[in-house]
Amino acid sequence: MRSEATGSWWQAKGPTSAAAQWICSPLLALLGAASCAPALAADRCEPAALIAASERTQGGPIHTLQISGSGSDFVVGQGWRPRGPWPQFNVERYERAIDFGASTSSLVMVRSQALDPPRGGARQPLERVEQTTAVAPGSSRAPALRRELALLLPAGFIDAARRSKQVSARPLGGGCALTVEMEEGEPITAELTADGRIRRLTSRIADDVLGDVTVETRFSGRLPAGGRTVPARIVQRTGDFPVLDLRITTASVGVEVAVAKDLTPPLPDWIALSRFESEALDEGTFLIPARYSALAVDLGEYVVLIESPQSEARAKEVIAEARRLVPGKPIRYVVNTHAHFDHAAGLRTAVAEGATIVTHKSNVGFLREVLEKPRTLRPDALARTPREIEFLPVDERLSLKGAGREVQLYHAKGMDHVEGMLIVYLPHVKTLVEADAFNPPASRRDVPPAHINPYTVQLLQNIERLGLDVDRLIPIHYAADGRRVGMDELRLNAGKADQEPSHAERRP
């Protein structure tokens, strides 16, 4: 497969000119030919020679690879502040076995809490967890695996380059850039030093919040691996922030890699797996429940959408259901509880419908910046029919009223999940809508959890501070069994089951 792919490139270029390029090639230079310059000449950035040179710098072909190490990973778009760093977790153990030819991989990763106190999203605080991910021979996930490895390891990129029939090269800063078209996703480019070593890999991805964004992987150090070498450190970034910082401590090549079946880490048991039927809280207030829920409130002349989450696809579902439930009225506002990417991913979809984004004032600058970025890789509805993105900022509180209903928005103070969090209170149905501060367990507990989540405590403190008279709590991450959640359950999970609010604490 590898030689055929490389051969197809030479045939496209023409055998005569190709042979001429090899009279004094980078490969011969690496072999020590005295008549050749020891570096890649800028005018000889030819794909096949570059592939061979980069393979030579790692000591030769790598068909199978086992690596182990440790470091940190970071969860995209879950920072405490919109422009702040993404939350970091310890990678206590990273063990990976790869067969590049068979497109198989097995990864065992042990992760644990790094931030103390926890701050940001990504299910913090996180208990120590071990997860196994595997891609077996013949898996439908093989193209995605090859792309992942081509962006993660020099050996993965070389394998992708040898497979691809669309490889191009150009001079770059004293070395060369080698670009490989992938069967899945955007092209990947390797920047090679003058001696042919891969120093950086880059590609672009389409993100619902960041738009067209670059993923970059850099390498440093060299670790011996049975006559070959692999990077001693791998740092991968998405946009401005790191997502992986891995130090490899052991590596071996040429070992048998056996992967029996595909494995994907299971979702946490509290995450709802299916859609639920929409529910009328009153004749003009509707809950659209799911793994990522939303609400539609009829305020007479227009509709307020509470959340447009998860993705463009989910946002389209929410909007279509809101229009079915409240026909003939425009969606004038969409409430964004906070700027974490899974809760902001559908905002452009709502804007394309004519909605103004209502969010805490601390989120506005960031959301304006990222939501206005280009969407050329995966154009969405707003890219196809552009319109200005408008915001209605919330300071400490804001109210929207109409048709005898009210949507009250409050800044939830002191939240370690995110700085600019809004909670939504609907006084006409005594219902509070919240995101991420309390994610109900898969089934109702009878006793408090062994470890109290501080975010849950902070939510309860805000409800009591504001004196809100709440009968029902609607988490955006809906209870997996579809049950109704009340304040008694929130107090139990906050370790305050015996604490009832006094009348003085309730808002008049």
Characterize the structure shown.
- This protein is an alpha+beta fold.
- It has two domains: 2-253, outer membrane lipoprotein receptor (LolB), chain A (Clam), CATH 2.50.20; 279-493, Metallo-beta-lactamase, Chain A (4-Layer Sandwich), CATH 3.60.15.10.
- The protein is 23% helix and 32% strand.
- The longest helix has 14 residues, at 312-325.
- It is globular, with a radius of gyration of 27 Å.
The major beta sheet can be summarized as: 11 strands, antiparallel
- Number of helices in the DSSP assignment: 13
Percentage of residues in strands = 25-35%
User: At the third CATH level, what is the topology name of the largest domain?
Assistant: outer membrane lipoprotein receptor (LolB), chain A
Principal-axis shape equals globular
Q: Summarize this, please?
A:
With 508 residues, the protein is of the alpha+beta class. The chain is built from 13 helices and 24 strands. Strands 4-3-2-1-11-10-9-8-7-6-5 form an eleven-stranded antiparallel sheet, with helices on one face. The chain has a seven-stranded mixed sheet with strand order 12-13-14-15-16-17-18.
